[in-house]
């Protein structure tokens, strides 16, 4: 048998639960051969589970402590996002019978940690993190670049999401660059995000959908700047301070993938999560974290140099980093 075919057969046998289906048979047929075969299957299955990712608790199980610790220690300057995400993911993952999939929409300026947070969420649920075959990323400019092909993209996206959820109900879908997505495309999957027990025999209720965009970023910056100008602590900013500006931009941005979608009209998004622009001190924290990630001794002088090298806005006050923490990694290589 060809290695690929053998692999698929093993997957079907062990991952899809066919091995379990064989077990009751072995109990009714009191034949030593069957028992021996079952024994071999169970033993091999256990070995197989350990080495090959399956849609099973061995590979998918939520680690609340890990998410909490990661959000507290690795995500800088995002007290609102951190709090909402922890609550939302906890509530969803501990609910054995959710009524709908979890839908999060993350908004904010570039380099503020939106993609980074999706990694932290994936790490807390999937043993393989972002490398998991149950985590799927769709990037607008990569997967749906041509607006004239929207009809094809719609049916492809629908089929793709359906197939992936049939394969594993605990799937995670990340839609990056929603602000560059053709308005209407996301409507092709809006039924999946709604309150349905099953659609064509498929239940989407245990999956997670995360949308990422810069939509609403300007309003968030304005609020953060107002607080800063009044000398108020950034941590005093509450979700309510940002909700109006956020929902207005999400509703009214006629170029974004949210525009006039059922996603918004039908309130299918469970949480809109604002990401604040990052200040100098957060950039320093990012530089130090990056040194640790590279197993280098954290050096505050170098972190300061890296942070000073970035551009800050508005021009007069230079409060927020134009690129957030985005270019820190490459800058460090230059300074260390
Ligand atoms: N708030 C943060 N705390 C810690 N690290 C951060 C934060 N924001 C950004 N970073 C670092 O900067 C890198 C780039 O950030 P990320 O890709 O998450 O930005 P983004 O918000 O998704 O930006 P964009 O809108 O351009 O996609 C991350 O991999 C992470 O290392
Ligand atoms: Mg991103």
UniProtKB/TrEMBL annotation:
<dbReference type="Pfam" id="PF06309">
    <property type="entry name" value="Torsin"/>
</dbReference>
<feature type="signal peptide">
    <location>
        <begin position="1"/>
        <end position="21"/>
    </location>
</feature>
<dbReference type="GO" id="GO:0071763">
    <property type="term" value="P:nuclear membrane organization"/>
</dbReference>
<keyword id="KW-0732">Signal</keyword>
<dbReference type="GO" id="GO:0016887">
    <property type="term" value="F:ATP hydrolysis activity"/>
</dbReference>
<dbReference type="GO" id="GO:0005635">
    <property type="term" value="C:nuclear envelope"/>
</dbReference>
<dbReference type="InterPro" id="IPR003593">
    <property type="entry name" value="AAA+_ATPase"/>
</dbReference>
<dbReference type="GO" id="GO:0019894">
    <property type="term" value="F:kinesin binding"/>
</dbReference>
<dbReference type="InterPro" id="IPR027417">
    <property type="entry name" value="P-loop_NTPase"/>
</dbReference>
<keyword id="KW-0067">ATP-binding</keyword>
<keyword id="KW-0547">Nucleotide-binding</keyword>
<dbReference type="Pfam" id="PF21376">
    <property type="entry name" value="TOR1A_C"/>
</dbReference>
<comment type="similarity">
    <text>Belongs to the ClpA/ClpB family. Torsin subfamily.</text>
</comment>
<dbReference type="InterPro" id="IPR049337">
    <property type="entry name" value="TOR1A_C"/>
</dbReference>
<feature type="binding site">
    <location>
        <begin position="108"/>
        <end position="115"/>
    </location>
    <ligand>
        <name>ATP</name>
    </ligand>
</feature>
<dbReference type="GO" id="GO:0034504">
    <property type="term" value="P:protein localization to nucleus"/>
</dbReference>
<keyword id="KW-0325">Glycoprotein</keyword>
<keyword id="KW-0256">Endoplasmic reticulum</keyword>
<dbReference type="InterPro" id="IPR010448">
    <property type="entry name" value="Torsin"/>
</dbReference>
<protein>
    <recommendedName>
        <fullName>Torsin</fullName>
    </recommendedName>
</protein>
<dbReference type="GO" id="GO:0005524">
    <property type="term" value="F:ATP binding"/>
</dbReference>
<dbReference type="GO" id="GO:0005788">
    <property type="term" value="C:endoplasmic reticulum lumen"/>
</dbReference>
<dbReference type="InterPro" id="IPR001270">
    <property type="entry name" value="ClpA/B"/>
</dbReference>
<dbReference type="InterPro" id="IPR017378">
    <property type="entry name" value="Torsin_1/2"/>
</dbReference>
<feature type="domain" description="AAA+ ATPase">
    <location>
        <begin position="100"/>
        <end position="243"/>
    </location>
</feature>
């Amino acid at each position: 048998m060809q290695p690929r075919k053998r692999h698929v057969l093993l997957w079907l046998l062990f991952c899809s639960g066919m091995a379990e289906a064989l077990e009751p048979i072995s109990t009714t047929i009191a034949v030593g051969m069957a028992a021996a075969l079952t024994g071999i299957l169970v033993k091999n299955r256990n070995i197989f589970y350990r080495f090959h990712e399956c849609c099973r608790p061995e590979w998918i199980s939520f680690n609340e402590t890990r998410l909490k610790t990661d959000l507290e220690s690795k995500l800088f300057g995002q007290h609102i996002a951190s709090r909402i995400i922890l609550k939302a993911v906890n509530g969803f993952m501990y609910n054995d019978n959710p009524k709908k999939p979890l839908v999060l929409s993350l908004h904010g300026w570039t380099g503020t940690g939106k993609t980074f947070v999706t990694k932290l969420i994936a790490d807390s649920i999937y043993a393989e993190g972002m490398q998991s075959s149950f985590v799927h990323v769709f990037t607008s400019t990569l997967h749906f670049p041509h607006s004239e092909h929207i009809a094809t993209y719609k049916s492809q996206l629908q089929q793709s999401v359906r197939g992936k959820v049939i394969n594993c109900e605990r799937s995670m879908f990340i839609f990056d660059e929603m602000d560059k997505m053709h308005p209407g495309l996301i409507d092709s999957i809006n039924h999946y995000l709604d309150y349905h027990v099953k659609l064509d025999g498929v239940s989407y209720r245990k999956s997670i959908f995360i949308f990422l965009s810069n939509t609403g970023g300007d309003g968030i910056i304005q609020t953060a700047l107002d607080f800063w100008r009044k000398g108020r602590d950034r941590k005093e900013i509450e979700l309510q301070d940002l909700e109006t500006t956020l929902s207005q931009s999400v509703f009214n941005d006629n170029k974004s993938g949210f525009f006039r979608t059922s996603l918004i009209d039908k309130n299918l998004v469970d949480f809109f999560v604002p990401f604040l622009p990052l200040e100098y001190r957060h950039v320093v924290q990012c530089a130090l974290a990056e040194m640790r990630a590279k197993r280098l001794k954290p050096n505050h002088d170098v972190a300061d140099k890296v942070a000073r090298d970035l551009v800050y806005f508005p021009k007069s006050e230079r409060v927020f980093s134009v690129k957030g923490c985005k270019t820190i990694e490459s800058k460090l290589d230059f300074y260390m």
